[in-house]
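User: Fold this one for me? It's Lariat debranching enzyme C-terminal domain-containing protein.
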Amino acid sequence: MEKPQLRIAIEGCCHGELNNIFKEVSRLHQQNPIDLLIILGDFQSLRSTADFCSISIPPKYQKLGDFHNYYNNDTWGPPVPTLFIGGNHESMRHLMLLPHGGYASKDIYYLGYSNMIWFKGVRIGSLSGIWKQWDLERSRTEWSQLERNRSWQKNVRSLYHVRKSDVIPLFMVREDVDLMLSHDWPNGVVYYGNMQQLLKYKPFFKQDIDKRELGSPISWQLLRELKPKWWLSAHLHVKFEALIKHTKRTLNLSDDADVRKNNDEIALNLSSDSEEDVPSTFQPENKDEIVLDLSSEEDTKQVQKPKKKKKINAAKETKFLSLDKCLPRRKYLEVINVEADTSHPSWQNAQMYWDPEFVHNLQYMEKNKGIMKDTPLEQMNWNHIIRESGFYDRDIDWSLYTVPNYTPGIQRRENEQTKLFIDRFLT
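Assistant: Here's what I get for Lariat debranching enzyme C-terminal domain-containing protein.
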């Protein structure tokens, strides 16, 4: 018996054109109902002209766009529930108030710096921003400092860049992911699609392709680790499809799997899978990684008998899709079909849920933030960290993880939304 499928509309770069996007989605929705719309960045959630100071757009090209109407009017909403991630042209004065995500307007939900949520039986992971290596290990300047010093323009480009704290909880995920969202491309996908056709449209990509620099290496590594059914991106303003076939991934991730390793031991493989699925032009990861020992001394004194093992049944292949920006005659919107897990509570009540495993990873990261901050990302051994973190409680009270329904005006109380998440999970 076939599993039910969701029809999900995917849109590339928004650039403030919400009205046009919603008009097209509404047209398609009337022909054949759509369950969800996902916008892959450059959303430009400008609430007023006061937000121009915190967006990376030259003054002569700045325009308010459509979002402010939805933000300021509680009755304005999209034709279907809408999720979006951040890109490299965002109103950070707004989005930084929602680091863990939240409602940006009625039925439009921002996913924060990174996230994992459930919607109608589909598990959706996300990573906002773009890759710039020099900012990966740095902390973002705080919103209050930027506002107080009026230093948004000076810092705004850096604020878009992916940080280590954004990707750690994603690398710790070990259960299956249906959709993974990022703004820029994983830098290995170009070798799995029609590269020659891509170069006909974008010949200036050739230099970056030859140097293996078209996209994000951290997202490519995530793709190989998570092996989602779909990876969806935007950023490069072109439609591109690829199919990445994976080697089998089955890890022994029992919570007490083996004797804890010596602090000085060197682990030789950052990735859990073999190198067979790496394109010949892609460089393997740093081999000088170290094992993080985040256990107490008492924990290391004895080895318990193995308990139940957790196997990862990740997809055998990942479909990659990137779309253009919203302009006439551009390929900026596509509807995909995604199988739903009918056993998940979100299928029954059509509500959105925070993902317990991802929340568990955030909690573990918060508990060990000192050593996480001091250890370079390339030196982290994910298998070991996953074992150290233990399994989250699978006897789940799903009411705790239910994302509250939209209430009028909640989008203008960003701090209240963030406080709710932190109070519930991170204090």
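One thing worth pointing out: Residues 5-425 form one domain.
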